[in-house]
Amino acid sequence: MQSPLSSVHRWVWRDARRRANNLLRFAEVEADGGRDLVRAAEQTKDPLLRRLFLVHALDEQRHAGLFRQRGLALLATLPAGRDGDGRTDWLAPGERGLDDLRVEQERDGALLAFLHLSEKAAARDFTHYIAVLDGDPPTREVFEKVCRDEAFHMNYTHAQLLRVAPKDHGRLLWMARLRRLWSLYLRFAGALASVIGTVVLTVQYFVFLPPFALAARRAQRREPEGWTPIAAERNGAALKRQY
Amino acid sequence: MKILGISAHYHDAAAALVVDGLPVGAVQQERLSRRKNDAAFPLEAIEWCLDSAGLEPEDLDAVVFYERPMLKFDRILVSALCAFPHGRGAFAHAMKNSLGEKAWVRGLITAQLGVRRDRVLFTEHHQSHAAAAFLTAPTRHAAIMTTDGVGEWATLTVGRGQRTLNGPTRIVLDREVRFPHSLGMLYSTFTAYLGFSVNEGEYKVMGLAAYGQPTFVDQVRKVIHSTGDGAFALDLDYFAFHTTVARSYSKRFVELFGPPRQAYEPIDLATPDGRRFADIAASVQAVLEEILVDMTRRLHAETGLPDLCLGGGVALNGVANARILRESGFERLFVPPAPGDAGSALGAALYADRIHFGNPDRDVPDHPFWGPAVDDAELARLAGEDGLPVADLDEAALIERIADDLLAGRVVGWMEGATEFGPRALGHRSILTAPHDAAMRDRLNRDIKYREEFRPFAPVVPIEAADRYFELPPGGARLARFMSGVFPVRPEWRERLAAITHVDGTARVQTVERDMAPRLHALLEAYGRRSGMPVLLNTSFNLAGEPIVNRVVEGYSTFRRSGIDVLVAGRSRIVKRALAQASPMGPNEPREELA
Amino acid sequence: MIRRRGRIHRQMIVLGSMAGSTLDLVQGLWRGPSGRRWLVPLAVFLCLTGGVLILAVTVEALAPFVYAIF
């Protein structure tokens, strides 16, 4: 099935340097996801889940290695240049893993539901990338390998969800969906707030700071290089002060 | 009196609890949150400290933060003003970062712990470092030097400390070098230039330096020069850390040293670029050592004291520490197990106890084991659930069994007692192996630690035998107590200690006294009886990108995911299933208990 | 055992502490040896801005709207 975003994906993956940088970022995300899964394995009281999470974590670690290896191989074929030409991973996300969860606060069922949806989304994204990577068989092969594992991850998380929450799995999946939506909104709100905050502070910077900057520069010129004596009253000064 | 020390918000958040003048617990937040270098407010660490002492927050007489947040905000603001108009990005970032949370530490502590506002105290950043270095060292009168990236304004301070058992304590810092002139920032800038993560990759620069020649020292001396009064100053044209958060070095820096290494690029020492990076690392290391030796030599001449206590993140540079010990004139050099910001939590609490409240001095136990302890029953439970055979052995049998394992070339994950406070694994959360074969080093790098080939591994040796294998100068064994010095391996042993001998013939030795770590000491002796050399390779029990393990379950998951053959926690021992089944039971091979 | 408070409760306590901390900063700048008394107005203004930043962190879902205060 053709993704409605296939032309965007085609654009993102067309350029070799961008492709390499995306793969290297995917490697980081997979490694982070692997560490979260290790944490999940260390938290659960369910021995079977612990074993499965550890297997899953090792898969993520391997994926990180595959992405990294391919990214580096691609970079090696390119002339030396600047690292990246703008981040495009938000247009072509890799696996989101557990980045929205505090693993230690989750129950097994909620964690499995969240994992299942994450793996499903990642598998769908990776399938789209495979479709636009005709011109780069080695990278395509990496995604195909990863995709095969994602299918296993999707299946085991679903099967285990049915096992640990036989009556509740539907609700947990819906909760996880809502939570992903809420996280998406929070990410968006956070990014927007960050942009607005930066704009406001930048305006303040140029409007209010110039006279103070002048004074600070003059004061800086008076600062001697080298040792500065420490005033006796600073030794053992009242510890209630924050300055 | 019950005093809680906290460090947070930059890197390596930690908490430490001092009761009646002595530490009762100290732990880095990362060990509990499992996020490497976790800088967040250390709520879990605080909770552990309080719970382990059976205290509630309202029982505390004081909560001491390790620096003065408003003085730090002053520095951040003035730096942004001095960078005008080029620092708009840094300004916005710094204001959001500081004013959105970090500047309001008193409110934050009150809100998180529910303690009264007037119980929240603040030390200066370098006072905390000084206290962590001096008040934990077995000396009564010593010169003190603290040096790191930056605290509030100070980046390096010198002074002296004096304490009388059951009497008063004095810590006087006489003078300081102020931001932006900073040895820590210099080293971190080169760390970033060489493509490593700042505040984490500095070890890698030190390891890489051994592969290079200091052919760039003249260029490094251009970016940092001595001032007439014996201090130093950076030429800020080469740096950008004071104007932007995006990078540490300027275009002029790149013109001087050539293109930087990209983070993803492997370092290939066979290529001209790889050799250039190694030479640059060697050069900045050499210049750092020169400056530190010069400053400590002057400090020795000025104070006439035999002991120096060194604190701050730069004190983690074991190569520089060894040179200071050899060349500064000080007879003994004390570096605490956690000289960086994590250790400042303990320093701040001790400073408040001795200086602010004027409580009488007490000798702080001279060991690093202040964190959560191993639960002896946990490994048996976990292994049982996974159908792995467990051997619960008595102390003597366990030591003999593990010595056999090590002799057979097995990699042992070793967990005992309370976890270490500080970045080094000093025998309570360690991976141990035989140190003889370079192939073992390569196996550890490849299958277990997943790290760069150029990074060395450290040896651990009983203090009685240290001098036989390593060229320790007077005071060297003390410096090696917490793995704080790098010393030459004696040439005649280098071949037999190939896994721990770095390319330049040195090693970051840990000496073990029976009193500090009796079990590890016994293991070293047992191994020595078998191999003829009581030396083991000791590396931290973690995988790349993860903090050192704390609980048994974390050790167990690391064991399951890596090439570690044997796991010991308390008195329980498990082996990998394949290994247990394949055990040939030869004369040197232990028999496995298979279910 | 530390009694956990909700985020909004915590952030309100932080907001409540701002005046005291700002006063510490002002006193430090005024009395300190640095000679930076001229920085006081800017420091106070930025601390007030900090109040808005704290509010934005408190209700992250509404953060973009909080910034509309500007």
Account of the 3D structure:
The complex is a heterotrimer of chains A (243), B (595) and C (70). Chain A has 243 residues and is an all-alpha fold. Helices cover 72% and strands 1% of the residues of chain A. Chain A has six helices and one strand. Chain A has helices at 6-14, 16-43, 47-76, 108-132, 137-164, 169-222, and one strand at residues 228-229. Chain A starts with 5 loop residues before the first helix and ends in a 14-residue tail after the last strand. The model of chain A has no long low-confidence stretch (mean pLDDT 88). Chain B has 595 residues and is an alpha/beta fold. In chain B, the strands form six sheets. In chain B, strands 14-24-23-15-17-22-18-21 form an eight-stranded mixed sheet, sandwiched between helices. In chain B, α6 crosses α13 (341-356), α7 (183-193) packs antiparallel against α11 (272-303) and α15 crosses α20. In chain B, 39% of the residues lie in helices and 19% in strands. The longest helix of chain B has 32 residues, at 272-303. Chain C is mostly helical and 70 residues long. Chain C contains three helices and no strands. Chain C has helices at residues 7-31, 40-58, 63-66. In chain C, α1 packs antiparallel against α2 (40-58). The longest helix of chain C has 25 residues, at 7-31. Chain C is flat. Chain C starts with 6 loop residues before the first helix and ends with a helix. β1 (228-229) of chain A pairs antiparallel with β8 of chain B, so a sheet runs across the interface.
